Amino acid sequence: MHKLSITVYSALDCMPSLGMLTINALAAADSVIIPVQAQYLSAKGLEQLLHTINKVKRQINPDLKIEGILLTMVDGRTNNAREISDLIRNTYGSNIKVFDTTIPHSVRAAESASIGKSIFTHDPYGKVAKAYTNLSREVLQIENKRQKTKTDILR
């Protein structure tokens, strides 16, 4: 008899502030993907968020994993975005995964948020929807490797 194993994934998209909703989401989560805009101030705020995540790990949720850093609103045409992306990869990449997938800057994404619709509804064939699809694949590859490692250990 085979045991059926089902894994459920839920994404909680929190505001960029470190208020109670974000803390509660971190307390309830198994893992976190940290979105960081490819801009100077966002990159600077990453250190504070990492400090908060480590505090939540110490005090509330010791099993919380940082799945990785996701570069968002990346305008590949600008030197600034490339420099910030490189800075984040070089600064954190040896300790925290920085996803290969980046989410490009797009007016359609801003429209999607303002009308309260998913990018997959508002612009399903656009570059942002494609990027999030690629991110989903990348996350699933990581999870599949994790599950395979667990299975190998149990053998």
Give an overview of the whole structure.
The protein is mainly α and 155 residues long. The chain folds into 2 domains: 84 residues, no CATH class; 50 residues, no CATH class. The chain is 54% helix and 10% strand. The chain has a two-stranded parallel ribbon.
Brief digest:
By secondary structure, this protein is mainly α. Helices cover 54% and strands 10% of the residues. The chain has helices at 20-28, 40-59, 79-92, 107-115, 119-122, 127-154; strands at residues 31-37, 65-72.
Describe how the helices and strands are arranged.
Elements: H1 20-28, E1 31-37, H2 40-59, E2 65-72, H3 79-92, H4 107-115, H5 119-122, H6 127-154
Parallel strand pairs: 1-2
Question: What is the strand tally?
Answer: 2
Strand content range: 5-15%
**Which strands sit side by side, in order, in the main sheet?**
1-2
Shape: globular
Task: List the domain count as a whole number.
Answer: 2
Query: Share of helix among residues?
Result: 40-55%
By DSSP (H or I, 4+ residues per run), the number of helices equals: 6
Which structural class do you get from the secondary structure elements? mainly alpha
Distance between the termini: 18 Å
Poorly predicted parts = none
Order of helices and strands: HEHEHHHH
pLDDT averaged residue by residue: 90
**Gyration radius, in Å:** 17 Å
Multimerization state = single chain
| Biggest pleated sheet | 2 strands, parallel
